[in-house]
Amino acid sequence: MADTEILIERAYSAFNKRDIDGALALMTEDVSWPKASEGGRVVGKEEIRAYWMRQWGEFDPYVDPLVITEGDGGKVRVRVHQLVRSLEGDVLADGEVLHVFTVKSGLIAAMELGDEADAAAGPSAAFSHRH
Q: Which residues form the SnoaL-like domain (predicted)?
């Protein structure tokens, strides 16, 4: 668990620092990621890079892992405190959400939004305050 916990903590730290290359280095080439602010999914590092660049151009999200638990089949559940601000600094969302990661060969292969009934349906509630 220690290696997986370090992997997950490094990924959140890189995301919060806007260190895209640092975060992507912790992922498989075919990583699958939810587009929380848009709905749907992206696959592959370059699609994640493009998505994050769009997201950070509209919002200022910060996610802090609170509890990391490892389950079966390489699944890692992470309860996070998520703070989403507008670029002007207004708080759009402030609360806890669940992220579920799939880890393969020491790298992040996928992330799911654990609290979303259907991640493909549309944006996460945290990002629903679009202007």
A: 8-110
Q: 3-class SS at 50?
A: helix
Q: Please check whether residue 64 is in contact with residue 12, taking contact to mean a CB–CB distance below 8 angstroms.
A: yes
Rounded to whole angstroms, the Cα distance separating 41 from 116 reads: 13
Distance CA 55, CA 84 (A): 11
Three-point CA angle 98, 29, 85, nearest 5°: 40
This model's pTM is above 0.90: no
Where do runs of H (alpha helix) occur along 1-131? 2-16, 20-24, 45-56
- Among 4, 14, 9, smallest CA distance to 65 is for 9
Q: Which residue has the higher pLDDT, 114 or 19?
A: 19
Given CATH 3.10.450.50, say whether it is the number of domain 2-115: yes
